[in-house]
Amino acid sequence: MSELYNRTRRSRSIPLKLLRQGRPLAVPVYWLIQASDLGREGIENSGSYRFADHIYRNVPSGKGRLGRWLDAKFLALPAVRSFRSRFLASRNALAEFLAQRLPEGRRLDVLSAPCGIPRELAEGAASYSQMPAATLERVTFHGLDLNPDVLREATDFAKANGLLDFVTHHGNALDRATYPAGADFITSTGLAEFLDDAQLEQLYRVFHDVLRPGGLLITSGMQRRWVSEYFLRLAELRTHYRSPEQLENIARRIPFREVSTRTDQFGIQSILTART
Fold first, then answer.
1. Is the pLDDT score of 2 beyond 60?
2. What domains can be seen in the chain, in order of their start residue?
3. Is residue 241 a contact partner of residue 268, using CB atoms and an 8 Å limit?
């Protein structure tokens, strides 16, 4: 798990690796991709939290006009739009959850694990705040991550984006001791792809233990598609692909009260929701 927050890169030089593999045509593709901020971050840091947040933010940037143009093209790819759909699912689910549960008058704990840049928490809370008489006074937001530098950046982001009651938890997402005592809502996207089935079941069990009765988990998985597979291999990301049925089968080994899955419009990201 120690590599998940950082880099999964094994080769010191990807161009040399491509040449050794007899794939010289992939080398210019590699260099072209790096003009885009999304492409460069994805390759240099093997799909880091900044890579994910760039997609979630959905604002093109790069080296000069070519880089920004290429970045916009990447952001418009179905595979990338699918990647963003898991953020949108979490954001929208949080806004709906807050609207349903805050009128009950009790305090709520909302957790992102791993949190990276907790954009889904900030935008979900902001969406809820637009509703009449909305207030976040009874909500504590939590971010859990293995990287202390990420947690510091997450804290700054949270404060700058209206999450004034934001608590960080440093540690392994598979370790129950890392978590707060309880939570009412958990979002976890982009982690299942890096876990084998046994680890994913362990993660779901931790989530079930953390969630209070009536709590909601929203998480994601990924199906194999050739375009996304090409870039993931180029970035040396080792990915576990699962169908919605496979995700649901693992989640149903845990005594959640309710489990359901759906696939996004691109047929790549699977969204799993589970209730306690």
1. no
2. 84-226+240-275 (3.40.50.150)
3. no
